[in-house]
Design a protein that fits this description.
The complex is a heterodimer of chains A (about 575) and B (about 160).
Chain A (H helix, E strand, L loop, with lengths): L1 E4 H11 L4 E4 L6 H8 L5 E4 L3 H15 L3 E5 L3 H4 L2 H9 L4 E7 L15 H5 L5 E4 L6 H13 L5 E7 L8 E4 L18 H13 L3 E5 L1 H5 L3 H11 L3 E3 L14 E4 L6 H9 L2 E5 L5 H4 L10 E6 L13 E4 L2 H14 L6 H17 L13 H11 L5 E4 L3 H9 L8 E2 L10 H11 L5 E5 L11 H7 L4 E6 L4 H10 L15 H8 L2 E5 L2 H13 L5 E6 L9 E2 L8 E2 L7
Parallel strand pairs in A: 2-3, 2-4, 4-5, 5-7, 6-7, 9-10, 9-12, 10-11, 12-13, 13-14, 15-16, 15-17, 17-18, 18-20, 19-20
Antiparallel strand pairs in A: 1-8, 21-22
Helix pairs in contact in A: 1-2, 1-7, 3-5, 3-17, 8-13, 10-13, 11-14, 15-16, 15-21
Chain B lengths: L1 E9 L4 H11 L6 E6 L5 E9 L2 H13 L3 E6 L5 E12 L4 H11 L3 E5 L3 E8 L1 H11 L4 E13 L8
Antiparallel strand pairs in B: 1-3, 1-4, 2-3, 5-7, 5-8, 6-7
Classes of the chains: A alpha/beta (about 575), B alpha+beta (about 160).
Chain lengths: ~575, ~160
């Protein structure tokens, strides 16, 4: 058997795991590992400018590909800088492995230079974390980390590696395990047959059904089964913001997304439904509004791989713990065999009602002679990219507009921090995607607030030639904060405006990229065409939009699903 | 309602902090907590008593089960069970009071495990109510120090929590 140092084992294990790229930043405690990286060509390392960006890059890649992203950082500040990125991945159940250097074992607990208890610090925001206690454990621990990160409900796994575990002169036998087994960890592999049968009976008897599909459909690769099921039953589908693309947005059965800024028709349909089939969704507070007023007439079937998601906020009538693809497959075969079919008259009447709600809002937003409206930016982006780009977003109004006006027909194309709401996420996430899918169109929809939270990565894009497009929806203010201040604080704009913005065009030039400022509507589409035509350039479109626009619909706080503001003056 | 949840988990460094962290992170309450390795030293048995609505208790058991190092758990209060707590208590015992303390200890079936001319150290085992009652009974006699182990429990009959 081959003898390798701990550092070489780490790199070799990554190679044997099939990892092509890792993202990170070197430092003292990780230097043996960096030296091992230097002495091989299989695992490529991308040097970011701040560790948070490394995690978001890995995250973006993981969301687009479904494979775990990998991060390598040093101890202390290197490790703590990853925390926001790890929490972002944790909230959205993204598979990821974070390798952190640590001070040498004999120094742990002595407040050594660049020492942080990363296991303690990361504990509440990881699926699991582990410390290497002997170099010979490294291959097994890495295999375990990938296994835990990517099975069951996925999530980030941190591996803490004291420096002496990677010492170059101490060599041990290396072999990478094919698989690992943990007696204490066994995620469900299929749903309970009796529960599935019960659910299907309820679905067949429903008169006003709706499918409420979340990010679990995308993580569980269950888009085809979900689409098939919806079509077979002629049920309407609403997606959560994490589930966009899990069911094609342009399908006639799609009602759009639901919740705080969801579509009028989705929220109305949910409130009036008699059966909700929740698939890989978790009844988040941004979806349900006040839970005591949530969908009073609905019985709830809830499919999820994670039992803690079921009946956490809203009790389920039929809980089904299992992988969504396998449960939906079993449902489909029961539906095929079933002699009972959903009542066609009831469904007709339901669709008539749904279509009335769909037609209720004739004007989704008001156009302006003076300003480009932020919605128009997304509409132009959708048109120019033919609806087929990877769209990442930061957090705020632009995120909501992107989710509302870009129609995602495929899973894994809409990449946003839905759970944690991390400003600064979108740009590095787009970098991770562009790196792995160089031929695809990748655009980051951002705002002048969010982009400045990780703007240093423009330098990384130069180093690795990442010609993605940045769509800066510039309203010169923290738009969502300002919207809340308009609605709840009599327009007292406490720290929500962005004074003294940089000249983004010059900034792009300084970094070796292209910046284009757009202030007129007639220039919007041509500028976008031009940006996407520059295949080998990162192009930043600095688009000035109406600084006072709000995102609507917006659910009324502490109301039911159907209580919404539809504009600044119109409330239903 | 008060519940006793008994957890079998991997005896690894950091396992306990995950359990304690889970309770504080999700705003659950720990009333007592005991933990020690079992006959199989790769496993720890942890007993936690907590209070909460059925919904909260359901979440607690699910969240505990979700911890990667938790092998199995049981809510002992769902069935017939035995619960015990150990208390060591130092009492003032001088003069006429010595006899009174001794009598009370006998009534509660405790043992005096250490004696000085002025102090009795008493060991008492029972459910938590019994220990509370003893403290109440001797409170007027002068309690100097109390240490309680927290609750341990086991199901009655054939039911076992094991691998």
């Amino acid at each position: 058997m081959e003898l390798l140092s701990g550092a070489d084992m780490i790199v070799r294990s990554l190679k044997d795991q099939g990892v092509e790229y890792i993202y990170g930043y070197p430092g003292g405690a990780a230097l043996h590992i960096y030296d091992a990286l230097f002495r091989q060509d299989d695992v490529k390392h991308i040097l970011v400018r701040h560790e948070q960006a490394a995690v978001h890059m890995a995250d973006g890649y993981a969301r687009a590909s479904g494979e775990p992203g990998v991060v390598l950082v040093t101890s202390g500040p290197g490790a703590t800088n990853t925390i926001t990125g790890i929490a972002t991945a944790f909230m959205d159940s993204i598979p990821m492995v974070i390798l952190c250097g640590q001070v040498a074992s004999h120094l742990i607990g002595e407040d050594a230079f660049q020492e942080t208890d990363m296991i303690g610090v990361s504990r509440p925001i990881v699926k699991h974390n582990m410390t290497v206690r002997h170099p010979s454990e490294i291959p097994t621990l890495i295999k375990k980390a990938f296994y835990l990160a990517s099975t069951g409900r996925p999530g980030p796994v941190v591996l803490d590696i004291p420096k002496d575990m990677t010492a170059p002169n101490e060599r041990f036998e290396y072999s990478y395990p094919d698989k690992v087994k943990l007696r204490s960890y066994s995620p469900a592999v299929r749903g309970h047959a009796g529960q599935i049968k019960k659910a299907v009976d309820m679905m067949m008897a429903a008169k006003r059904p709706i499918i409420y599909a979340g990010g679990g459909v995308i993580l569980g690769k269950a888009s085809p089964q979900l689409t098939d099921l919806a079509h077979k039953l002629n049920f309407p589908v609403t997606n959560t913001i994490m589930g966009l693309g899990g069911f094609p947005a342009t399908d006639p059965q799609s009602l759009g997304w639901l919740g705080m800024h969801g579509s009028y028709e989705s929220n109305m349909a949910m409130h009036h439904a008699d059966l909700i089939l929740a698939v890989g969704a978790r009844f988040d507070d941004r979806v349900t509004n006040a839970t005591d007023k949530f969908c009073p007439g609905a019985r709830i079937v809830h499919i999820d791989i994670d039992p803690t998601s079921i009946s956490k906020t809203v009790p389920a009538d039929v809980p089904i713990v299992g992988p969504v693809d396998s449960v939906l497959k079993e449902m489909l075969s029961l539906i095929k065999e079933s002699k009972v079919k959903p009542d066609p008259d009831a469904l007709d009447a339901w669709w008539k009602q749904l279509n009335e709600w769909r037609g209720f809002r004739t004007e989704l937003y008001q156009k302006s002679d003076k300003h480009i409206m932020p919605q128009q930016v997304i509409e132009a982006l959708y048109k120019v990219t033919k609806g087929d780009a990877y769209i990442t977003s930061d957090v705020g109004q632009h995120q909501m507009f992107a989710a509302q006006y870009y129609k995602f027909d495929k899973p894994n194309r809409w990449i946003n921090s839905g759970g944690l709401g991390t400003m600064g996420f979108g740009f590095p996430a787009a970098m991770g995607i562009k790196l792995h899918y160089p031929d695809a169109e990748v655009a980051c929809v951002t705002g002048e607030g969010s982009i400045q939270m990780n703007i240093q990565e423009l330098s990384t894009c130069k180093q690795y030639q990442l010609p993605l497009k940045i769509i800066n929806v510039n309203n010169q203010s923290l738009g969502m904060v300002k919207q809340w201040q308009d609605m709840n604080y009599e327009s007292r704009y406490a720290n929500s405006y962005m004074d003294s913005l940089p000249d983004f065009v010059k900034l792009m030039e300084a970094y070796g990229h292209v910046g284009i400022k757009v202030t007129k509507l007639e220039d919007l589409e041509p500028a976008m065409e031009k940006a996407f035509a520059m295949k080998d350039k990162l192009v930043f479109l600095d688009i000035y939009v109406d600084p006072f626009e709000h995102v609507y619909p917006m659910q009324v706080a502490r109301g039911s699903m159907k209580d919404m503001w539809l504009s600044k003056t119109e409330r239903v | 309602m008060r519940r006793i949840i008994s957890v079998l988990m991997e005896n690894e460094p950091g396992s306990l902090s995950r359990v304690v962290g889970l309770f504080s992170q999700r705003n659950y309450n720990i009333e007592t907590l005991t933990v020690a390795p079992t006959d199989d030293d790769t496993l720890s048995r942890l007993t936690v008593t907590t209070e909460g609505s059925d919904k909260v208790i359901e979440q607690i058991t699910k969240q505990l089960n979700k911890l990667v190092e938790v092998v199995k758990l049981v809510d002992l209060t769902e069935g017939a069970h035995i619960e015990r707590e150990l208390m060591l208590i130092k009492l003032k015992a001088s003069g006429a009071q010595r006899a009174e303390v001794k009598r009370t200890v006998d009534i509660f079936r405790g043992q005096i495990v250490d004696v000085t001319s002025t102090v009795y150290t008493v060991q008492l085992v029972g459910n938590s109510d019994k220990l509370d009652a003893f403290i109440q009974a001797v409170s007027a006699l002068g309690v100097l120090e109390v240490v309680r182990s927290g609750v341990s429990g086991i199901a009655r009959g054939e039911k076992v929590l094991a691998l």
